[in-house]
Amino acid sequence: MSEPVILALTAGEPAGIGPELCLQLALEPRQAGIVVVASEALLAERARMLGLEVELHPWQPGAPPQMESGHLSVWPVEGCENLAAGKTNPANSRYVLKTLKIAAHACLNGDVDGMVTAPVHKGVINEAGIAFSGHTEFLQELCGVERVVMMLATDELRVALVTTHLPLRDVADAITPERLTQVTRILDADLRTFFGIAEPRILVAGLNPHAGEGGHLGREEIEVIEPTLEKLRREGINLTGPLPADTLFTPHWLDNADAVLAMYHDQGLPVLKFQGFGRAVNITLGLPIVRTSVDHGTALDLAGTGKADAGSLHTAIRVGEHMARCRKAAKQESKS
Ligand SMILES: NC(=O)C1=CN([C@@H]2O[C@H](COP(=O)(O)OP(=O)(O)OC[C@H]3O[C@@H](n4cnc5c(N)ncnc54)[C@H](O)[C@@H]3O)[C@@H](O)[C@H]2O)C=CC1
Ligand SMILES: NCC(=O)COP(=O)(O)O
């Protein structure tokens, strides 16, 4: 059996289902070494509330994480002011961001092999006066890279996005040749690196209805998308499109493709979630670290009930572990 990888798992919004999903995980034997980055008091309180018998063990870099059922390694983080389930409190926002910074820095300096994130509440963080669009953008900035790509995936479907958390009004202007070029190259490269696809076949959606209907329903396809795809094809990237988004998600196209590139969040993700909500993973491509996440949000309506399903968290950990192993292997290969 190969050496276990270590993943830092941030517990996310304290009022949401993140803390109890981390505890549910602790009741199972694990393949990957999991270290939950969270307030110990929060985890202890949620375990008490749900009657879960989980022993928390403070963890320090260099130590082996707990792998046995009923035991959980915790990277303790101070500053969680409110432990209540189901009721958000902006006073917790700095604590939430601290957990993300700790996990990301631990990845960057090699203390852990990757990070997995439970959901945060973007609105509550903004209510605390902190501009925050999502983990994706936050980690892009923290890692100092110009572009990253959000991709959600099930075993059957991968959907990546050209734009992420933008008001719809701003989307068309954000789809520039530069952004489309960067996103497509990252998607192509990471499908090769992490998914073992020798020549990824990518379907690209148009922006407008019927992919612009020859310019009669919008000109972004003609002026931006088609010329950029043509340039990228000359680099050797296998691209089909721009295709009308309403017919792209059908077996005719999907059966011969490895990923879909959608122009914006709600063009691609509703289809993915309809197909596999609860077992999909959200991956940030293009980072110098491994980051995966669940496909769902904070589910405040379920927090503290013990009814939240951990299926997506299992997928996020499985995929995070796989990606971390790919990274480790590539590093070792480059050394030898
Ligand atoms: N990766 C992240 O940090 C993400 C965070 N969010 C944030 O979550 C907040 C709430 O978003 P919503 O749109 O309400 O979506 P949501 O995913 O929290 O909830 C939608 C519905 O799905 C159910 N649900 C969600 N996760 C579930 C699980 N594990 N098991 C069983 N049922 C589950 C909820 O009870 C609810 O009925 C927003 O503030 C959003 O920003 C949303 C998506 C991802
Ligand atoms: N709908 C997916 C989502 O909003 C996740 O965002 P992020 O926090 O992973 O950037």
From TrEMBL:
It catalyses: 4-(phosphooxy)-L-threonine + NAD(+) = 3-amino-2-oxopropyl phosphate + CO2 + NADH. Its cofactor is Zn(2+); Mg(2+); Co(2+). One of its GO terms (molecular function) is NAD binding. It is an enzyme of class 1 (oxidoreductase). One of its GO terms (cellular component) is cytoplasm. The keyword Ligase does not apply. Pfam families: PdxA. Substrate binds at residues 135-136, 273, 282, 291. It is found in: Cytoplasm. The keyword Magnesium applies. GO terms for biological process: pyridoxal phosphate biosynthetic process; pyridoxine biosynthetic process. Pathway: Cofactor biosynthesis; pyridoxine 5'-phosphate biosynthesis; pyridoxine 5'-phosphate from D-erythrose 4-phosphate: step 4/5. It comes from the Bacteria. Homodimer. The active site is located at the dimer interface. This is 4-hydroxythreonine-4-phosphate dehydrogenase. It comes from Marinobacter pelagius.
